[in-house]
Amino acid sequence: MKKIFGYVLGHQPKLSIEEIKSVYISQRLEFEPKDDSREVFVLESESDVFHRLAGSIKLFEVKKVLSLNDWRPKVLGLEEEVADWIEKEGKIVFGISAYSAKNEKKLVINLGKKVKESLRARGKNSRLIIPKEDDLSSVSVDKNKMLSKGGEVIIFASRQKVYLGLTLKVQDFEMFAKLDYGRPKIDAVSGMLPPKLAQIMVNLTGIHPKGKNLLDPFVGSGTVLQQAAFLGFNDLTGSDISEKAIEDSKTNLSWFKNKLPDIHFKSELYKKDVLKIAELGKSFDVIVSEGYLGPPLKTGVGVDEIQRNVRELQLFYEKAFIQIAKVLKMDGVMVMAIPFFWLQNREIFLEVKIPDTLRLIKKDLKYKRPDQIVGRQIFILKKGYLHA
């Protein structure tokens, strides 16, 4: 039976929505997008794919849909229905989160009080967790055991409708923290690809892992291979021009196997310049990588230095894409993050010529933290010639 699910998105909403769609495709699940905003993506499907995602922080099932016309009083009149959703044995712990263009904390508090009164009338003791802003963090939902002791009620007001629902799952923040900061080898000089972004990039391939092999030609500290294994890819290859990167990856992947012994995979690591990657003598179904981001930049860097980096990196990536394409199987998919720069309130992108053997699927996906000069522009490419 089809249900309407809402995915609460992370800090990079466009990237998060693209990841959700790609995972439904890779898992061969039908879905129909219904609504979206910078905070929530709503779709209809028989199943959710939340357990495979890294870019979504909560999953809720829509219980009721209202029109936008005078919707706040209607929501406040639903206290009995909401109480039904969260009623459990013992003391009930619940919270309410609102996702909307406007500040809805007053609505959240008032509805919470009315639900609490409704539960009291039923002889139920309850505790209402009030968010600091409009919404509760996934950490708060988890630490207060809301999903087992009551529930988190979601109010999502889009430009079209108002959705009310109940949270089903929250992101396993402790697992992601362990897979990031718990690793024995981290290299801040060569760049630190966050495990969440690595997992999103693997998901963006839209490829089911069964029977597929995966290459990361800029393996760094092994983050892409780690998250690919986490998602079920079990035939992994990494290469890098740096001997230190190869050793760091070996150490980190060994640590990962010890921490999660139920995940089985084989990995091969090679010291290899990406411009000589064809010397591996292998071809791959999937290539996922964060490429070279350029030399480290200091705060206060000028336009001339940025432009010099852009010119050098453009030439490098045009050569690199040609060589990487040689080891990608026909109809194989490549997801590659290359740098873009943020300077004087504008974005500066590399203009990289894509080889004829690759078809550009998408290049408008970006990942950047607010305090960073260098962001990542994510390319999705497929091996195959364009036919006239």
TrEMBL record:
GO terms for molecular function: tRNA (guanine) methyltransferase activity. It holds the Pfam family Methyltransf_31. Residues 210-339 form the Methyltransferase domain. InterPro entries: Methyltranfer_dom, SAM-dependent_MTases_sf. It comes from the Bacteria. GO terms for biological process: tRNA methylation. This is Methyltransferase domain-containing protein. It comes from candidate division CPR2 bacterium GW2011_GWC1_41_48.
